[in-house]
Amino acid sequence: MKGHYFLHNTDLSKPLVSVVMTIFNGDRFLAQSINCVINQTYQNWELLVIENGSKDRSVEILNQTDDARIKKHLFHDNIGRTPALQFGLEHALGKYVAVLDADDLCADTRLVEQVDFLESHEEVMVAGTWFDEIDSAGEITQERRPPTENLSIIDMMAFSNPILHSSSMFRRIEAIQVGGYEEKYKYGADTNLWVALMAVGDAAIIPKNLASYRMYPENLTNQKNYAKEVYRDGFLVYQRAARELPISNSARRRNRHTVTACEVLLGRALVRENRIVEGCWHIFRGLFRDPVGVIRSNRVRSLIGLPERSN
């Protein structure tokens, strides 16, 4: 791939687990995230680090790591997060692929817990875990305990992604066979991959807190800057979930509400970019399809000055 060079390679025996980490200007928390992998009680892993054209000290920090299992792929220019994830998937050697973002953390027992689970549950294509949201100082701000059983996960996938990307471990060959990280999704590529894997097998969430997702001002600002892509991806992925997964009737109703809200919010984002005709078309189509879904959406309610609904 143009602009890429391979910084470090080894002749190690084939690892069972490939951990994929993409980086873009991630020097603030990068060393902590890498150490989470190095300190795992399970040791038969490789860490594929895809450095995506950072302008900060990320490369310098990577150069300070000398573990032979860390394979560093550096790009001179940012190729996009989804292509970087797909690059990692295609270059992974393990039977299983785990993900850890460069600002997230995981427990030292994460890999061994997930390997043991997947080795004993051949029907499961992807396994996540419970997780905490943490701030920039690493303090817990919220506990996240999504459902653990396959049918409950399927239902939730119709309107919200219960499998945190940085808590996931999935089967590499099967992930490649269903299309991997599709480039058309900028922020929903992981959710789309879970839907695709759940269409051919089961999903599970291990009921242990094995991951921490970092929420901090720069992270939230980045999400707001790409609201259009977030809503577009949600609109497309949740539609796919309704088509391909055996969701319950109650989940199907929530799916319709969520898809409608995503489309209306997508339309609003397009209008704000002066794409008036396209934006209004999405807004009116969403309103016509499911006006109840619009009113039920807390994001839409906040935009028009209504109080949030309690779940």
Layout of strands and helices, then pairs:
Elements: E1 4-6, E2 17-23, H1 30-38, E3 45-52, H2 58-63, E4 70-75, H3 81-91, E5 96-99, E6 105-106, H4 110-120, E7 124-134, E8 140-144, H5 150-157, E9 169-171, H6 172-177, H7 189-198, E10 202-214, H8 217-225, H9 227-244, H10 249-272, H11 276-289, H12 291-296, H13 298-303
Parallel strand pairs: 2-3, 2-5, 3-4, 7-10
Antiparallel strand pairs: 1-4, 5-9, 6-10, 7-8, 7-9
Helix pairs in contact: 7-9, 9-10, 10-11
Q: What is the architecture of the largest domain at the second tier of CATH? A: Alpha-Beta Complex
Task: Sum up the overall morphology in one term.
Answer: globular
Class of secondary structure makeup? alpha/beta
- Report mean pLDDT, rounded to a whole number: 90
Sheet with most strands? 10 strands, mixed
Give the N-terminus to C-terminus distance in angstroms: 47 Å
Classify the oligomer.
Answer: single chain
Q: Which class of the largest domain in CATH terms?
A: Alpha Beta
Total number of helical segments? 13
| CATH topology annotation of the largest domain | Spore Coat Polysaccharide Biosynthesis Protein SpsA, Chain A
Q: Total domains, how many?
A: 2
